[in-house]
Amino acid sequence: MKFRLTVLIVFSLCLSNVFADEGMWLLGNLRKNKQTDRVMKELGLQMPVNKIYNPKKPSLSDAVVSFGGFCSGVVVSEDGLVFTNHHCGFSSIQQHSSVEHDYLKDGFFARSLDEELPNPELYVRFLLRTEDVTKRVLSAARYAKTETERRVAVDSIMNVIGLEVSEKDSTLTGIVDAYYAGNEFWLSVYRDYNDVRLVFAPPSSVGKFGWDTDNWMWPRHTGDFSVFRIYANTKNGPADYSPDNVPYHPEYVAPISLDGYKEGSFCMTLGYPGSTERYLSSYGIEEMMNGINQAMIDVRGVKQAVWKREMDRRPDIRIKYASKYDESSNYWKNSIGTNKAIKHLKVLEKKRAAEAALRDWIQFHPEEREKLIRLFSSLELSYSNRRETNRALAYFGESFINGPELVQLALEILNFDFEAEEKLVITRMKKLLEKYDNLDLSIDKEVFAAMLKEYQLKVDKKYLPAMYEKIDTLYNGNIQAYVDSLYATSCITSPKGLKRFLERDTTYNLIEDPAVSLSLDLIVKYYEMNQSISEASEQIEQGERLFNAAMRRMYADRNFYPDANSTMRLSFGTVGGYTPFDGATYDYYTTVKGIFEKVKEHAGDIDFAVQPELLSLLSSGDFGRYANAQGDMNVCFISNNDITGGNSGSAMFNAKGELLGLAFDGNWEAMSSDIVFEPDLQRCIGVDVRYMLFIMEKYGKAGNLVQELKIAR
Predict the structure, then answer these.
(1) pTM value surpassing 0.90
(2) Residue 346 contacts by C-beta under 8 Å, 6 or more apart in sequence?
(3) Range 553-567 burial, b when 16+ CB lie within 10 A, else e
(4) Quick check: helix, strand or coil at residue 193?
(5) Residue 224 falls in the annotated catalytic set
(6) What's the DSSP call for residue 77?
(7) Torsional class of 230: left (φ above 0), alpha (ψ -120 to 50), beta (otherwise)
């Protein structure tokens, strides 16, 4: 009786019924998942699930793309227009910007197809079908005796299955992904299009309104969207950029709704969430908090302070560093919020309660006890054995591997493969040379010196790489003197020096270059540190897999969605506000009124500055067909859809499968959402498609683009 009571208590605390709004669901399982289908219909879904995903016929999911492999997007016209977030297109917008043509500040609109701007490194990926290949993968690993042997066998067969797809059709890419901590495996078949051109970007006063201050916050007033177009060859197939390419004609075009939403309206999101750790043990969560999260908070905070100071001083630096600052600060603030939410919401306590219930269940079932009697003691010991080194590795990665750009350049040079396919070699050469366009050596030197100091401050001296000894012996402990000397003597601080390497100049000894030599030392130290905890890491990998499988067996009658892993997922729920803390209630939408309020509140703050002509347009109140029922203009809205990083740009659909807007953020109070879902707090923030179209048509004078769209009547 005690066991049953404990389970019931924990079930309600942490692992209870999957809430209607919880879960990032696999599309391949939708038709079989009767419970999810039933709940969606109860919430208001008005279309059959085979209209959402159907590998044999055009369906809603055919309009959804992985945008560049880091975001999501949705196809909205017969000529291949794609809506995604402004922050997803930010790097492309930045690459085309200059002080003379500042598309970040002023926005961009191509008046014709000829003016649309190519982005050689950008692609979109369409999902064609998924297939459960678990039996085939696990059969290849059945004779493995260790976790390493299992991993090698699994990785090999996953690669084989993926290659079989492209061998049958060279326009396709097959990727096998692991689910449920490596207990299930699914094949996804994709088709990629590599010619993607920038069509429209609002000014940053719209697309990034509020910048870091408002990031991850609600209420929000950010028009986080941009527009691209997919191009294809004359047969509508994938092709690299060519002036001869034509607009792509999609299998399915997402219709757009101008009817809006109200409290309780059904809402579903289709996109490519990056990664979650909902089933990670409490030991893993604690390691994450004190390791990678804290390292991001400490190290990126130092680096970004240097960048931001110089960005605010000089327009050219603002353009050069805008994209990398945006990417870095996004996860920096995410880590701050995540650690804060884990403590505030007592996530570790809830996880430990769930683990206590699982321990009781294992003891209560002899067949489980025989297999898993040492599961928790092994996990606890293994995490303990790697704790200090793993934390040092997190700081090492942030301080050096992801720190000074000179080190990043050197590491790319060391990994350069001249024997690769000629097209790939040329592309990588061009990419390396382009890095200098967005690099300021004086700023990078300051960052490097700051990283050296921060790393030394945060870790035990046994984790210091060889350069610290050189600093002590040759430079009397003067870090700045060492950095000055390094940048003065390395050849790769300039494009001219890099060309000596790329042209394979025999008079240039790569290994003797100070920056390259330093990077080799860093690689060796990083490898040594990883090797010292390899046994513990192997035990953790096995333990987390067994833990995941045991939890699913314990709650065999529950629908378990897998953690996000950058594959397409469906989440669903309803539009609605929330109460973040006692005495406060947040509404489910914002209007342009809030833009004026924030401009006034943050007067003089460049992050909230808006062009006078845009303020004049918004103050006119002439919103036409894009107005809400009260004649006002909605800007953003929230739902309890389950999303995470990578969902940025995901389509948010109504009950009929019509586009309501684009997901672009989560909310501060539920920043622990990658670890645990909090139904009363977690919200998905989206930009209203009506605001997007208003900005395009009325401010950007891009009415011709709006005419391309399939607007539902």
Answers:
(1) yes
(2) none
(3) ebbeeebbbbbbbbb
(4) strand
(5) yes
(6) B
(7) beta
**What is the Cβ-side half-sphere exposure of residue 713, based on CA atoms within 13 angstroms?**
0
Who contacts 673 (Cβ-Cβ below 8 Å, separation ≥6)? Answer: 276, 341, 642, 644, 666, 682
Q: Which helix (H) or strand (E) holds 660?
A: strand 659-666
Q: What is the residue type of 685?
A: I
84 SS3 class: strand
Tokens 């970004």 locate to 304
CA distances from 177 to 98, 132, 238, 543, 674 (A): 40, 10, 24, 19, 19
Distance, in Å, from the CA atom of 261 to the CA atom of 267, rounded to the nearest integer, reads: 9
Point out the catalytic residue in the list 66, 77, 86, 87: 87
Amino acid of residue 488: A
Highest mean pLDDT of the ranges 7-11, 21-25, 421-425 = 21-25
Separation of alpha carbons 667 and 580, rounded Å: 10
Nearest-Å Rg of the Cα atoms of the chain is 26
Tell me how crowded residue 373 is: count the other CB atoms within 10 A of its CB: 13
The residue count of the chain comes to: 713
Would you place residue 279 in the very low, low, confident or very high pLDDT band (cuts 50, 70, 90)? Answer: very high
Residue that has been written with the tokens 């401010």 in this structure? 699
Per residue in 183-209, pLDDT tens? 999 999 999 999 999 999 999 999 999
DSSP state of 606: G
Q: Does residue 344 carry a catalytic annotation?
A: no
Q: Which of 62, 195, 224, 326 is catalytic?
A: 224
Report d(CA 302, CA 53) in Å as an integer.
Answer: 45
Nearest one of 706, 638, 663, 617 to 64, comparing CA atoms: 663
Ranking 226-230, 425-429, 484-488 by mean pLDDT, the lowest is: 425-429
Residues 6+ apart with CB under 8 A from 41: none
Catalytic residue among 648, 650, 672, 673: 648
Q: Is 249 a catalytic residue?
A: no
Q: How high is the pLDDT of residue 684?
A: 97
Answer whether the bond into residue 118 is a cis peptide, omega within 30°: no
Distance (Å, whole) CA 24 – CA 17: 15
